[in-house]
Design brief:
The protein is an alpha+beta fold. It has a single domain, classed as Class II aldolase/adducin N-terminal domain (L-fuculose-1-phosphate Aldolase, 3-Layer(aba) Sandwich). It is globular and about 55 Å long. A hairpin with a 6-residue loop joins strand 1 and strand 2. 40% of the residues lie in helices and 13% in strands. Helix 1 packs parallel to helix 6. The relative contact order is 0.17.
Amino acid sequence: MTAHTNLTHLAERIDMAAAFQWTAQLNMHESVANHFSLAVNPDGSRFLINPNGRHFSRIKASDLLELDANDPTTMDRPDAPDPTAWGLHGSIHRALPHARCVMHVHSIHATVLASLADSRLPAIDQNTAMFFGRHVVDDHYGGMAFEDEAARCVDLLADPKVTTMIMGNHGVLVIGQTVAETFNRLYYFERAAETYIRALQTGQKLRVLSDAVAEKTAQEWDSYPGFANAHLREIKALLDARGSDYAA
């Protein structure tokens, strides 16, 4: 693994690049769309984000842009981000300091769930229970995620207990404190959505957990020691073994 030691926030950049490349490996990316961002200052207003038009599988640590959510000239930069990335992620980092890391994708099963008339995720197994009482549904899709759409999303994410927003007719957005925590949550949401959709396809009655057991399980996930960090550590080990340039 090689890295540029003159980069700012190097460790954070490496974690982000690993998450991008592994998301592509899992086929949870979409063309050159979708964005991940990570706050790098105490109030969350400065953040790293992927450059405009770069495929997830090619993103390296040195490629990430560092933006200021309060800089009105951002879209005039020669390396300006995708306008929807600025609209959505810029708005979140500007308004919600607790949303340190933000990951948004149109992964297949999350988007299928977001396309249902009722997009809530019931707790039918251990993975779906991770999101019990911790997800919200945006029912008012009005087009691409420019700043008008983003304002509504910010309001839905204001409660610090909310970690996941199912964006109706759109996809999913997950927030967390670190890259490891947020990517682990994103991965498990896609798994959970797949389990639920496949369960619906059977046409059988679902075995839904009680609220008490679902909340207990969600809390156990919240406090599971070192799990998300181990997940990201192993992803980086797999990428290293393949000779990936994610840390460059």
